[in-house]
Recover the amino acids of this structure.
């Protein structure tokens, strides 16, 4: 007779652990307890039911108890909540929604309770019937049914993370008037502030009213009142503030929790009890870049954790390297992906670092559908170790970030990234991909070939009347430029050297920083040592400035924005 293994919780972590255990042990007795109605569903796809991108709610369900039994000989008990663990007797206490209660014995126990959406008690009206969270299939169905009632037009989404923005996009696609409220100064925390501005503009361009740096104070049946006093009309509210790990069961059983408050596990995802394992959103993971504990509620890591835990139960030790945090999201017409550390997190972790912001076409420019990719690359100084990257564009940004994520996992450097040999065809990419280009630019910065300033510094330069030279063509300059900038086209540079001062800093830019880099190299060859390239140039500046200009009414630093 094989082991008696109980799994608490389904979806990615629990269901995968159970399936792996079956593959390892044909004789094991395996039972999954799921307190909800569905044991296996695509929770990351839930928002797409609102717009009918996923046409039928049943498509969200991946496997049923019957299919688990037929495919894996696994007993799945839905609507069955495990309410207690007796570690000494090695039993769990189960309570069914029908009211029946019983104990079940185990040899090994896997906990995959997941996480719960945050519903802050500090917000008045948070429990009103028109206030929703999104955790499972039933949640999204209830939200969908409510917003499709007569008279429900205005929806406020609280939270600008993955779930919040995906819900907002799909509600907008379904014809609702959507507002997003984010207490932080930007949406999408995995992205740095400069990159987040691109996403914020996309939300605004698609009719979403976005309020950042403002929290929710109260909710009534007709409106949402913000901390600033601003009021937003709302017949429905979706809370997407974040999640907290479900640790009540583990804590009550006396299992050790980690620094983050999640369940502490070892390299094999074994808890402080040698016969209890834990995986998924509820556990504390190790960030291999910051070397600190963290929480990472993502499906991909949960699947890997489940396999490692199952292997460990059968004496096959794992060798996890920790997590780096790779993610992707689509926001209307833009795709966005990130991996590793953003610059803000790296600096907060005490890692000396710098970054470059580059733009290049995702495929050869004459190919239909070609579009720019904005890529920010973060690297350690002085080692050149790649720490993270963020990419945004209409094309395959996930491909570029996957390449960099792989390199980070291997401990790669800028030199390694520069030398990567990637697939090339005009319909797929360019001969020098944007990831290679970013590495080249970063190596130049790292080794002092030229100096740079970031887009976040440009407003201060304009307001202090710094010497800024725009090396684009006169036609480009006339279409929109930084206030106070002097236009010296790259083709005229060598004939106009006497117009460029040597006794104070000079900041150069073009459209994407390529021509201004060439200008700097030419001028440095003529003895200039006071030069700085503006990273991102006029395109990056336009994206960076636009959202805040529009929402605050502050004075523009450009005569016209340029997004092309």
């Amino acid at each position: 007779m094989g082991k008696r293994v109980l799994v608490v919780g389904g979806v990615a972590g629990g269901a995968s652990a159970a399936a792996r255990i079956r593959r390892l042990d044909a004789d094991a007795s395996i039972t999954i307890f799921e307190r909800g109605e569905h044991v296996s569903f695509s929770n990351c796809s839930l928002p797409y039911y609102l717009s009918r991108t996923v046409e039928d709610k049943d498509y969200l369900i991946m496997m049923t108890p019957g299919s688990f039994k037929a495919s894996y000989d696994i007993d799945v008990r839905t609507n069955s909540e495990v309410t207690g663990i007796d570690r000494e007797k090695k039993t769990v206490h189960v309570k069914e929604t029908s009211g029946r209660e019983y104990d079940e014995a185990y040899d090994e126990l896997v906990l995959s309770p997941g996480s719960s959406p945050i519903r802050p008690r500090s917000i008045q009206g948070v429990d009103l019937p028109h206030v929703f969270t999104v955790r499972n299939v039933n949640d999204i169905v209830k939200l969908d049914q409510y917003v499709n009632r007569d008279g429900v037009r205005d929806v406020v989404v609280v939270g600008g993370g993955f779930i919040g923005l995906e819900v907002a996009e799909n509600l907008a696609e379904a014809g609702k008037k959507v507002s997003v409220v984010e207490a932080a100064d930007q949406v999408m925390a995995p992205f740095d502030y400069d990159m987040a501005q691109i996403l914020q503009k996309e939300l605004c361009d698609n009719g979403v009213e976005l309020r950042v740096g403002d929290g929710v104070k109260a909710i009534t049946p007709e409106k949402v009142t913000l901390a600033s006093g601003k009021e937003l009309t709302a017949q429905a509210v979706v809370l997407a503030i974040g999640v907290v790990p479900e640790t009540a069961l583990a804590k009550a059983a006396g299992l050790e929790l980690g620094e983050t408050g999640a369940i502490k596990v070892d390299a094999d995802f074994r808890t402080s009890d040698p016969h209890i394992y834990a995986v998924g959103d509820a556990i504390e993971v190790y960030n291999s870049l910051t070397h600190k504990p963290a929480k990472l509620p993502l499906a991909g890591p949960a699947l890997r954790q489940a396999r490692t835990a199952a292997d460990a139960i059968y004496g096959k030790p794992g060798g996890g390297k920790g997590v780096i945090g790779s993610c992707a999201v689509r926001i209307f017409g833009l795709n966005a992906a990130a991996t590793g550390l953003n610059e803000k997190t790296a600096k907060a972790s005490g890692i000396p670092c710098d970054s470059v912001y580059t733009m290049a076409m995702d495929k050869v420019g004459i190919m239909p559908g070609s579009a720019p990719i904005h890529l920010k690359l973060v690297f350690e100084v002085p080692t050149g170790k790649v720490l993270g990257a963020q990419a945004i564009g209409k094309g395959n940004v996930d491909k570029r970030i996957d390449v960099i994520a792989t390199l980070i996992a291997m401990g790669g450097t800028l030199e390694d990234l520069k030398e990567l040999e990637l697939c090339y065809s005009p319909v797929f990419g360019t001969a020098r991909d944007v990831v290679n280009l970013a590495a080249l630019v970063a190596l130049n910065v790292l080794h002092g070939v030229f100096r740079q300033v970031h887009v976040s510094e440009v407003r201060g330069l304009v307001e202090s009347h710094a010497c800024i030279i725009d090396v684009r063509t006169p036609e480009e300059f006339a279409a929109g430029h930084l206030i106070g900038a002097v236009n010296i086209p790259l083709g005229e540079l060598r004939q106009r050297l006497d117009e460029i001062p040597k006794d104070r800093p000079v900041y150069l830019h073009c459209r994407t920083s390529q021509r201004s880099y060439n200008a700097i190299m030419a001028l440095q060859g003529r003895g200039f040592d006071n030069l700085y390239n503006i990273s991102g140039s006029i395109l990056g500046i336009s994206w960076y400035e636009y959202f805040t200009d529009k929402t605050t009414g502050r004075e523009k630093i450009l005569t016209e924005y340029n997004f092309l």
